[in-house]
Amino acid sequence: MPRSLRPGQSAELYTVDVGTGDRRLVTRSTELLFEAPNWSVDGSHLIVNGDGRLFRIAVDGGGGFDEIDLGGVPPINNDHVLSPDGTTVYVSADDGHLYAVPLAGGSPRRVSNDHGVHHYLHGISPDGSTLAYIGLEDRDGQRIANVWTIPAAGGADTQLTDDEHADDGAEYGPDGKWIYFNSERASTEPGHAQLFRTSVDGRTTEQLTFDERVNWFPHPAPDGSAIAYVSFPPGTLGHPADVADVRIRLLDPDGQFRELATLFGGQGTMNVPSWSPDGNHLAYVAYPL
């Protein structure tokens, strides 16, 4: 079921300058709980989901919510990415499958296969040929989440991680050699997710953050100079909504981070690739009460 706003709550879409930290309110709604902003490839629009649908919003805030025709795709969640050429949006639907939808209109195409997993899309390779997703499956009564890839044109799935640790947020880096994700694999107790990356063949995995906070959804900058991510308070289980002291952070190649924003939010704030094409801004959603 799509999320809805609580009484007295609003959804606020911001862009923030990663150099100065200055933020700007793009739009606000007290009716539609929208989530997960992508940027259009020309930098003129942001794309968000809400109520199982997809919308386009001008970065300057004019024009309101322009609904994108999904061509009969089942209601979608907050995991969607754009193709590098800007012609296609790939979405995760509530039926558990991935779909390719032409942004200019036309019939959607189901990308994913039936292989016992529920698909949550997070990334696309720089050349647009491959999608990275989280496959959620029931295994001996446990819900297991691992990193997978699949050709964007359709084809055989490739599983990159295979363990009982909760993985999420699988997103390609700009060189196409690594897939970044968050995982509980560094801890024996839930509520300690950190950031990792794995080579695209799954043979090498490296941990990137080591602090006491709970770190989710790594988004590498277009030039590889930093990784933006969502940081929850210590001990947070999963990536819940409506959490105080959620922070947007930037991680540099030396492993140092800096705070970019603090907000009330969490789920839906920045689940998908959220960098502007020029790498100067990030987009995120806050949900103040």
From TrEMBL:
Entry-linked Pfam families: PD40
Domain of life the protein comes from: Bacteria
Family according to the record: Belongs to the TolB family.
Name the record gives this protein: WD40 repeat protein
Species annotation: Kribbella amoyensis
